Each structure stands twice: as structure tokens, then as C-alpha cells.
Amino acid sequence: MTVQHKMIEARPAPGNTVGPIAWLRINLFSGPVNTVFTLLGLYLLYVLLTPTIQWAFINADWVGTSRDDCSREGACWVFVNARLTQFIYGLYPRTELWRVNIVFATFAVLIAWLAIPRLPLKRWVALATLVAFPVFAFFLLYGGYFGLRVVETHRWGGLMLTLILAVVGMVAALPIGILLALGRRSQMPIVKSFCVVFIEFWRGVPLITILFMASVMLPLFLPTGVSVDRLVRALIGITLFQSAYMAEVIRGGLQAIPRGQEEAAAALGMGYWMRMGLIVLPQALKMMIPGIVNTFISLFKDTTLVMIIGLFDLLGIVQAALSDSRWLGFALEGYVFAAFMFWIFCFSMSRYSQYLERKLHTGHKR
Amino acid sequence: MTEQATKAGNETPMVEMRGVNKWYGDFHVLRDIDLEVKRGERIVICGPSGSGKSTLIRCINHLEEHQAGEIVVGGIPLTQDVKRIEQIRRNVGMVFQHFNLFPHLTVLENCCLAPMWVQKKPRREAEEQAMRYLERVRIAEQARKYPGQLSGGQQQRVAIARSLCMHPEVMLFDEPTSALDPEMIKEVLDVMVELANEGMTMLCVTHEMGFAKTVADRVIFMDQGQIIEENAPEPFFNNPQSERTQLFLSQILGH
Amino acid sequence: MSVRPKAHTLGPKPPFWRDRAKRALLFQVLLIAAVAAFLLYIIGNTQDNLAARGITTGFGFLDRTAGFGIGQSLIEYSSQSTYGRTFVVGLLNTLLVSALGVIAATIIGFIVGIARLSPNWLIARLASGYIEIFRNIPLLLQIFFWYFAVLRAMPAARDSYSLGEVIFLNVRGLYLPEPLFESGFGLIPLTFVVAIVASIALVIWNKRRHEATGKRLPAGWISLALILGLPMLVLVATGVPVTWDVPELRGFNFRGGITIIPEFLALWLALSIYTASFIAEIVRSGIQAIPHGQTEAAQALSLPQKLVLRLVVVPQALRVIIPPLTSQYLNLIKNSSLATAIGYPDLVSVFAGTTLNQTGQAIEVISMTMAVYLIISLLVSMFMNWFNARVALVER
């Protein structure tokens, strides 16, 4: 018989199962093939990152006023710095920038309110964003009332114009998209085929041809002597394009609502519009938000195409600045800046939509 | 509606179907259906799956359209007239197999929705009434929850309360217990029995034969789109006339 | 069944706006009327406007001489050619860059998508970095980047980058050696065809044998060896009847070989890299959509890993992947129209751009351009629907 009088102290687990070294072994070096891949990956990272970091940060010039302040060994951020106001506001009069800033700030508050799940009154804020805000923003930006001086649309540009195009295109496309999606599900053959043809037509052609059409053909369609602002023409094209994509997203959402919901509403004596407005759409719209955010991201990127018909959005104004004779040869800096701006917007939106999607999925499991 | 109904008096049947026929494409689902339901009558419809029993009651509130014959509900003939269809639907409550509660609304909102939007009642009145009905189905304490947080039996009771809030004169039940776990069937049946005892006109598609025996005035057996047998529950169960009824009853009561 | 009054004739007739069928009819007639009125309005205005500007409508302009040159053409083209020919040249250039873009995007996309699921942490991170960077930057910006910041910043012809003194890259484009075929070369494509036919026969025979006897040859490898090896053998046997026309610097430019213009390169690179980031996501989610239980069940049946993938995972994943993949291909084709921003002579650039500006025939030109894309979209979706139906049928 043996009796153990000494207590055994707890010992750490062997080094080969826990800790950073084990993590490395499991995730990076678990076999010869994996090791080769890891080494290749490390080499690739080294080759890509070192020159990039050297160029963008270590050898870069940040302060100054003209190209002479740049050493040419790294990035010349002086160029972007000098042009920043233009990149953001276009040719909007310098003394009136506060108007744009108010619109930006209002928009940011509204969006943040909508995006943070805990805040109440979502429905009213959404309504304000979709209806009241565009009107408010237009009067503030265009002016002509309340003693504000008129700022013609051809002076609008930069990030501001990019946001205007995307937001207006989205807001205008939403109701049209809903009608088209409902029409596509209709039992009336003519209504249905009209919606199908409309949707498939705008989805089947490139946006650039739609913009060409809006800028070249639209003036022909209007009575002689009536002319439409160039920005409005672009917006019409974008709205038609976007509404077709929106309609398909909404149709997907509608399909996810079981038939029984509509039947139950009908059994309670509700008419078509009541069934749609009170029962089907509120449920479907909630499911569609990730899809809507995704089409908004595409639209946001696609707005860059308006520079081809002569509007100066963020990319357009960067491109224009590149041909300024005082700042020749800084194409890379300009593009990297524009890419960075677009990337921040698109990446955060796509993260948000992924988060929503995950939330929806767990919601269903309950 | 109610004016017309009272004018017609209590003599007129609540639901009248004469020579009703319906096809899905080439498939003849309802064949020469004749059925009369008096006020306060409780009817149980049973039959094998695919026999057309659900289609039959769904025709009464025009969730399905019949192609021949006539249906008169509470003295109002069912035609293509949109206004009449809605009038009839307001007067006919329906409970579905899968409850079909609106998941984006709370239990209370589910019950107030139609009274507020269809009957244009003020919110307070609609809510008070909803709470009364929720108490009747013994679920008032869950009024602020969402349907997703309730069990199947609780959801079905809410669905019954939701229909009652419209003060229907007839209630249609489309297999109300067949999507429920066994231990929840009783709570729903209890509510239905109470409702029957209060004199509600009811048409139930169900396989709960116990329920049929206790409350039904008549049991209808359907097969292949036809009404095969129609009788009071006692003779129906003890002495079925048709072979097909006998076979069906032996299959569902056999074990 | 005896004669009975129809339900629909019973009772007082409702006013027509309350009758379901009539209401639907009325609604549709109104829709047609509205659309027709809108079209008439537009057509009327357009006729007035065209008359005011002195433009005659019609497709007659297609036979007129274009009078401008095009930098890249797959068919004979000069500034003496007609606008009709311009249209064809543009269309072919669109198809060329789209086809090559689809191929490259698919290859990169599948590699990145699979790498994204790699158990190797670093590789998975790199792949997701690729996806997140490229799909969140506008395509037009990427095209500009490759064109203005990379290819336009290449050295002049004299300081070209070269690979083994046969491939050259400079500001004017990429220069590749061109194979010149001598007599006797005709045998090689012939053997190639023979090898393909033999491989198909082998695969069919192998399948029958497998079904009949359970035995199987590694038919894939044998076919590959046949298709690659047989033409090679013939090539060597006939004494390699090919000479290469290597580009050579003469004066300020290269002569000989094949020239790939920088506009094409930039567009092709940007389209492929951008679309690949979407395809990678589609591939990843397609593979992840197959429940792990499927793999486990196949493993429990003692199928080896390779067959688990080939017989269970891939066929199911393909069904998930194909529909969104199709729409990415269509997007790529439509996006190739961004060519016009850097002057690659695609359909939109030479036809909806230059031709439209020179002739002013806006309606005809835009409609023809849109029709081309619509037809391509229609054809691709029809093909993919057919393919999808076949893949889907296998399961049910």
C-alpha cells in the first residue's frame, strides 16, 4: 500500500499544445506544404509592404505649399494637402462651405442613428432621412431662399457630389424599386411583363450607356427649348439604373415572406395596399437591409462614372487636378488618396451589412 | 353587413354553398359541394389529405376562388365584387394551421391591427378590446411579447384572439392543431370548446375526433373533392354509412 | 352536374370599379395608355428636336466613311472604312477584353477564394486582404491606376523592361514574340484535335468500365498527357516548324512581334483583378454553404478526401456558385465599357463615343449599343440557366 502525502502542484501544459509557439505550429507550419506556403506568404508580404510603407510614410513629404517641398523619393502628400478642400467640396464657394458642412453633419447624425441598434424611433428617423433630409439638403446647398446665395450645380463637386449622387439615386430608387418589385409579382400579365421588361432592360445595359443616354438623348426627348441641368440628367440615369437593381433586392425580400402572412391579413379583411403596407413590406424591408446596403455600396462606387459625362465627383476632381501644370507627375498620390476615401466608405458599409446579416440569421434561429 | 344580416333574420343560413366547383388547372378539387350552415351551428370537416377540405373553407372567405356554383355568407353572395369580398372577410374569422401571426408586431399589436385599420377604431378602444379577448384565451400576460417568443400553443391562442377582435359571425379553423406538439393541443382545443359553447358558428377542418364528438352538431366527411357523408357525430362515429368513411375512421381511430 | 346559376352572376351587379376582373383589366389598359402616351410624347418631341437640328434619322450613316483610325483592331480596318465597320471593330474589341477578363478573373477568383478557406492562417489573411482591398475601390479608379500611374509611367522604348530580350514592356505597351508557322505546322493542330477526341473517348470508356467492373484508370491524367504530349511529340518529330518573330528596337520604337496596347492591358488587369475579388467571395461562400455534415457523412463512408471533394462537395457547391458567378460575368462584360475613359477602342468608346460625336445620330447609336449589351446579357443568362438546370437536375 502506498500513501501519497505530498500534494502535486499544478503544472503548465506542455509547450506543444498551447501558447503562441503552438499556435504558430498549428496555423502556419503544420507540415511541409503549409510551411512552404507560409514562407511564400511572408516573402510576398515583405515584397509588397516594404516599398509601400517606405513610399507612403517613411520617405513621404507631408508639409509644404508647392511641389518644390517634395523630395520625390516618396509620396508627395503636399499635393493632396493643397487640394484637399477642392477634393471634398469641389468648386463650392469657399465662404459658403459651412452650408455643406451642416448637410454633412446632419447626414452623419441621421445615419449613425439608423445604424446603432439601441436608439429608438427608427421608423421616424428613416422617414426623415428619406423624405425631409433630401429637401432640406437641396435648399441649403442650392440656396436662393432665406437670403442664401445661389450656388449653381456646376460648382458642386468632389466627395460632396459623390455623396449627393449616391444618396439621391438611392432615395429616389427605393419607392420606384418597391413598385417595380410588387408589379413583378402581380397577377396582371401586362403589369407583370411591363415590370419585367423595365427591370431587365436597365440591368442588362452598362451604366455608362445609360449616362450617355441621359446626357445625349434626354434633351431630345423634351420639348424644344426646355433644358435640364447636367446633374439632374445624371441623377435621372442613375435613378433608373438603381431602381432596377433595387427592385430585384426587394423582390428577394418579398419572396422570403411566407404566403400565410398575406392570407392572414386578407382573412382579417385588409385590402391589397393595406396588406402590403402593414404586413408584407415592413417584414420584407427589415430582411432586405443588408441587400440594400450592398446595392448602395455598388452605387457609391459606380457614381465615379459620371466623370465620363463631365461631372466632377471625387475621382473626377482628382483626375482634373492631376493635369494641373503646377502639380504634374503626382498621379499615384491622387489615386491613392481617392482610393483610400472610397475604401473607407465602402469597407465600413460592407462590414455593417455583414453584421446585420449575422444578426438576422441568429434572429431566425430563436 | 350587420344591418343586412339582421334584416335577413335568423332564418337565413350563415353559410350557403350550392353546386360549388373548383379546379386547379385540370385537377378537380371541389365537386358539386352543397352545404348549409345555420347560425350557431358547429361543423367539423374531416377526410384524408388532399380531399379538398381546406380548399372548401378557404373558398368561404375567398382566399381561393371557386369557378362554378354559388356561395352566400351571411346573406351576402360572394362575387368578384371587391367590396363584398372585404365585407365578408371582415365578418368571417380564420385560424390557420401555421398560426400566421405577424412576427414584426407584438401580440397586442397583432390583435389591434385589423380593428384599427379596417374598422377604424381608436387605439385605446382596440387595445382594451384586444386585452379582453387575450384574457379570454388566457394569454393576456404575454401581450407585450413578440410571437417568436411564444410556444406554438400560445401562438395559436393569440391567432384565435386576433380573429375574435373583428367580432366575426363565423369562425373557420383550418387544421388548427396539426402543427402543434401533443402537449399543446389541449390548450387550443379548450379555447375552441369554450367558443363553441358560447354559440359561435364554427367550421373546423380537424382530425381531433374527441373535439368533434363533444362539440360538433354535424360531422362532414370529404374525399376526392366530394362530401361523402354528413351526419350528427354520434351516428357518424358509431354507424358510418359509406365504406370510405368506415375505412378512414378505422385508420385514424384504429390504434 | 345540373344547370345552376353561376356565382358571379348572382346578386346586384357591382359597379365595374369594384369587380375584380374588370378592375384588373382597367388597370392594365390604363398602364398601356400611359406608356403609349409617354412614348408618343417623347417621339413627338424628338422629331421636333431632330428637325430643328437638321438631323435625319435612319441607319444610313452606317455606310458612310468613318475617317478616323482605331488603335487596335481584330479585323482589317482603316480610316477609309465605314461606320458599320467601326461598330464591328468596337464590338470585337469588347468581346476580346471581356473573354480574356472572364478567364483571368475566374482563375484568380477561384485561387483566392480557396486560399481564403486555407487552414494556413497567413494565406487565409492574405486572401481576405486581397478581397477587401479590391472590391471596395471603384473599378474606374483601378483602371486609372493601372493606366495612368503604372503603364503610363513606364520607361520610353529605349529603356524598356525586358524578359530574356524577347518580351518588352514600355510606355507604348507590351511586346511579345509572334510565332510564324512554316509548312508542315498544320499537322500540330490536327494532332491536338485527335488527342482531344481520344481523351473524350477514353473518359467515356473509363466511365462505362467503372460502371461495369468497378475498375477505373486515372483518365484525367492520361488525357492531360495525351493532349499536351502528343502535339509536342509531333512538334519535335517534324523538326519544330515554327520561327519566332521577336520584337526589335528600331529607332524610337519596336518593330515585329505582337503589340499589346497599354489601354488593353490596363483595362484587362483592372477588370480581372476587380471581378476576381467578387468571384473569390462567391467561391468561398459556395463552399461554405455545404453543411459540414455532408463532408462528415462522406468521410464516414470511407471516401478518401479527394473523392469527398469531387463527388460530394464540388457538385453541390457548383450549384450555389453558378448563379452569382453568371451575374459577375455579366458585370464584367458591362464594366468593360469603362474602356472609354482611357481610350481603349471598345464598342462604347469608338461607337457611342467617336461615331456619335461625328454623326450626331444619338438615338440610333445609343440604341444599337444598348441592344448589343442586352443581347449579350440575354444569351449569357440563357446559357447559364440551361447549364444550371442541368446541374440542378443531377440531384433531384
Automatic annotation (TrEMBL), chain A:
InterPro entries: AA_ABC_transptr_permease_3TM, ArtM/GltK/GlnP/TcyL/YhdX-like, MetI-like, MetI-like_sf
Record field: transmembrane: 35-58, 97-117, 124-146, 158-182, 194-222, 272-293, 305-322, 328-349
Topology relative to the membrane: Multi-pass membrane protein
PROSITE patterns: ABC_TM1 (PS50928)
Places the protein is found: Cell inner membrane; Cell membrane
Source species, domain of life: Bacteria
Record-given protein name: Amino acid ABC transporter permease
A Pfam family reported for this protein in Swiss-Prot or TrEMBL: BPD_transp_1
Ranges of residues in domain ABC transmembrane type-1: 159-353
Keywords of this entry: Amino-acid transport, Cell membrane, Membrane, Transmembrane, Transmembrane helix, Transport
Entry GO MF terms: transmembrane transporter activity
Span of the signal peptide: none
A GO-annotated cellular component: ATP-binding cassette (ABC) transporter complex
Family classification: Belongs to the binding-protein-dependent transport system permease family. HisMQ subfamily.
Entry's Gene Ontology BP terms: amino acid transport
UniProtKB/TrEMBL annotation, chain C:
Membrane-spanning ranges: 24-43, 87-112, 133-154, 184-205, 217-244, 264-283, 365-387
Name of the protein in its database record: Amino acid ABC transporter permease
Domain named ABC transmembrane type-1: residues: 91-384
Subcellular location: Cell inner membrane; Cell membrane
Mode of membrane association: Multi-pass membrane protein
Pfam families listed in its UniProt record: BPD_transp_1
Cell membrane recorded as keyword: yes
Principal subcellular localization: membrane
GO molecular function, one term: transmembrane transporter activity
Biological source species: Billgrantia desiderata
Record PANTHER family: AMINO-ACID ABC TRANSPORTER PERMEASE PROTEIN YHDX-RELATED, MEMBRANE COMPONENT OF AMINO ACID ABC TRANSPORTER
Family, similarity comment: Belongs to the binding-protein-dependent transport system permease family. HisMQ subfamily.
Source species, domain of life: Bacteria
Alphabetical UniProt keywords: Amino-acid transport, Cell membrane, Membrane, Transmembrane, Transmembrane helix, Transport
One of the protein's GO biological processes: amino acid transport
Annotated Gene3D superfamilies: MetI-like
GO CC annotation: ATP-binding cassette (ABC) transporter complex
